[in-house]
Specification:
Layout lengths: L7 H11 L15 E3 L3 E11 L11 E10 L5 E6 L5 E6 L15 E6 L24 E5 L31 E9 L6 E10 L5 E3 L6 E5 L2 E6 L4 E11 L6 E5 L5 E6 L6 E11 L4 E8 L2 E12 L6 E5 L2 E2 L8 E11 L6 E6 L4 E5 L6 E9 L6 E7 L2 E11 L14 E6 L8 E3 L4 E6 L19 E7 L17 E6 L4 E5 L6 E10 L10 E2 L3 E2 L7 E5 L1 E10 L4 E8 H6 L3 E2 L14 E2 L4 E2 L1
Parallel strand pairs: 6-7, 28-36
Antiparallel strand pairs: 1-9, 2-8, 2-10, 3-6, 3-9, 4-5, 4-8, 11-13, 12-13, 13-16, 14-15, 14-17, 17-18, 19-21, 20-21, 21-24, 22-23, 22-25, 25-26, 27-29, 29-32, 30-31, 30-33, 33-36, 34-35, 37-38, 38-41, 39-40
Length: 603
């Protein structure tokens, strides 16, 4: 195993084995030699920068600590190792110096403390007693940590019998390592001439003669779910020393997002409070790591945790109620729902108070647009919309109340009619009414009147009136009949029984058409459905020709024994047909001619 940071002579011997460059020979104690005087604690430091595997007990491990000491009466001394994360254990000492004695009286140490639980250093009243070595060093060679050693005056007072205690899964290779030497008796002094560390993987280790950047404290307070957002927040503090002169201090989350919490220049020492907001509260494992962008080995973390899981929550629902469609008397309900943290399985059902619903299957992504189509317009009141997840019934939302549109189908039917003529006319369709004739039109009682649409300001008083047109109707339901250019107006406000009398005799033609009425008292023939469709029905068009009155004048010629009749009006005056004479009396009389045009004569 390569021994980094050892004194130069020893380090060069190992370079040839591991093929490290000689530039790493500078990686040694940064303040050696360290004087060791009576009755005190004296620290020696090594600064490590590591871009390779960095977690002790994770992807890397501490294997040994080596140091060389020139000091008489080494029983005065104990040695404590302090890792960058603050892990602190006594790794060597003479048990006797804890009991008021000064331990072994031999001189000088050149030793490597290695991982292991054995104790080749011996046991008993004096831990150094069996370590007498040659070559001028009382203690030399490779050993594991002796048991039973303590330091009444040292920085931590903890002891361990295995160097592997530093490989705790959280500490890092990078940072400042400190070897603290305690001198517990008077009279004898000396110095630490050099010391070094060994690791399982030293591929990324670099060293600096300057103090290394060190993030010596990093914490994270994980907040609870922020209601309605599906997120949570994190805050904490990052403390550091010897930060780089440029770049940013960032906290990187488990999604790879770098949250810049401070930028150069940094204080020394420095402390930054940070807040990270809006992380997804998905209940998944996450982590946070703090580091400097311009000194990547200067990092702390990761802090591993499990994100809070927000409960399923609806954040919004909209409901749009359409107007009634008169073609089928239906309407639609549309809208959207928004939610956070939905279940991963099951269905989402959006339903109204009458069970009209739409179902969506997992997975769910907010927002979701919904549409309940073709609902019967029956005027249901105080209805609402409910959205519910089947696998989390407590996660639901209700919107309302609202009312269904009223029935908008135009159900009116004009029915059928009987017609009859009182008088001389004997035609129908068209009805050619002689002067004084009457056409009676009477409903058969099978009319379906328009339903009550509860329109404000209009009295519901249905019936059937008679309209007059100058030509056959050209506008039919559901269009507005008032826009028909042929419409003359109202012929009769009587309900389903009309008498049309030829008392004008002017050869005019009028088309009489029955029409359903929504309000006879208000004169409203129809209600507009959805601002465009009018609810009414028209009956058959009765074409009535008001024929001129037939008039005659007679001229007699006694000598000739003739009588000549001039005849006007009637059908010939309307359509150019001819009068026909017949049934001449007395039987001895005869016609010179039997036909005549309007205004013509018959002799």
């Amino acid at each position: 195993m390569l021994k980094l940071f050892k004194r130069l002579l020893t380090f060069v011997l190992f370079i040839s084995i591991s093929h490290f460059s000689f530039t790493q020979a500078d990686c040694g104690c940064t303040n050696c030699p360290v004087a060791i005087t009576d009755n005190g604690n004296f620290d020696a430091e090594i600064f490590i920068q590591n871009t390779g595997p960095n977690i002790l007990g994770g992807d890397n491990c501490l294997t040994e600590v080596c140091f060389t000491v020139d000091h008489t009466w080494i029983g005065d001394l104990d040695f404590t190792l302090i890792a960058p994360d603050g892990t602190c254990y006594i790794i060597m000492g003479d048990a006797n110096n804890n009991a008021g004695g000064c331990g072994s009286s031999c001189d000088d140490i050149d030793i490597c403390i290695q991982v292991g639980t054995g104790n080749p250093a011996g046991t008993g009243g004096s831990e150094y007693a069996s370590l007498s070595g040659g070559g001028g060093n009382c203690v030399s060679g490779n050993y594991t940590i002796a048991t039973g050693v303590t330091d009444p005056n040292g920085p931590c007072g903890n002891s361990t019998n295995n160097l592997d205690a530093f490989n705790n899964g959280t500490g890092t290779v990078s940072g400042t390592w400190t070897l603290s030497i305690g001198d517990n008796c008077g009279l004898d002094t000396g110095s630490l001439t050099d010391w070094s560390l060994g690791f399982c993987d030293e591929s990324g280790i670099n060293c600096s003669s300057d103090p290394l950047c060190n993030i010596n404290f990093f914490d994270a307070n994980i907040g609870a779910c922020v209601a309605g957002t599906g997120t949570y927040n994190v805050n904490g503090t990052v403390d550091f020393t010897d930060a780089p002169l440029t770049g940013d201090l960032v906290v990187e989350d488990c999604f790879g997002t770098q949250h810049v919490i401070a930028s150069a220049p940094f204080g020394n020492p420095g402390s930054v409070n940070y807040n990270i907001n809006g992380l997804p509260a998905d209940g998944a494992a996450c982590s946070l790591t703090a580091y400097f962008t311009d000194d990547l080995p200067c990092m702390n973390g990761p802090i591993n945790y499990v994100a809070p899981a927000c409960p399923c929550s609806f954040t919004n629902i909209t409901t749009n109620v359409s107007a009634c469609d008169p073609t089928d008397n239906t309407f639609d309900i549309t809208g959207l729902v928004e939610f956070t943290n939905p279940p991963n399985t099951g269905t989402l059902t959006i339903a109204d108070c009458n069970g009209n619903s739409q179902v969506f299957n997992a997975p769910f992504a907010s927002p979701i647009n919904y549409a309940l189509n073709g609902i019967d317009s029956d005027g249901t009141t105080n209805c609402d919309i409910t959205a519910t997840f089947s696998d989390d019934p407590g996660c639901n939302i209700v919107n309302g109340p609202f009312d269904y549109p009223q029935n908008c189908s135009c159900e009116t039917q004009i029915g059928t009619f009987n017609d009859a003529v009182n008088g001389d006319a004997n035609s129908n369709s068209p009805w050619n009414l002689c002067f004084g004739d009457e056409l009676d039109v009477i409903g058969n009682g099978d009319v379906t009147l328009p339903q009550d649409f509860n329109v404000g300001g209009v009295t519901y008083d249905p019936g059937v009136w008679l309209l007059a047109y100058s030509c056959p109707p050209t506008v039919f339901p559901p269009n507005d009949l008032l826009s028909d250019p042929c419409l003359i107006g109202t012929a009769s406000t009587a309900d389903q029984a009309w008498t049309i009398v030829n008392n004008v005799g002017d050869n005019s033609t009028v088309y009489f058409v029955p029409v359903t009425m929504y309000s006879m008292v208000d004169g409203v023939y129809a209600i507009s459905l959805n601002n465009g469709d009018w609810c009414y029905d028209l009956g058959p068009a009765y074409q009535v020709n008001f024929l001129q009155e037939i008039t005659t004048s007679q001229t007699q010629d006694c000598q000739a024994g003739t009588a000549t009749v001039t005849i006007n009006g009637g059908m010939p005056s309307f359509d150019g047909s001819q009068f026909t004479a017949s049934n001449l009396a007395p039987g001895s009389a005869s016609f010179n001619n039997t036909t005549a045009n309007d205004g013509g004569t018959i002799t």
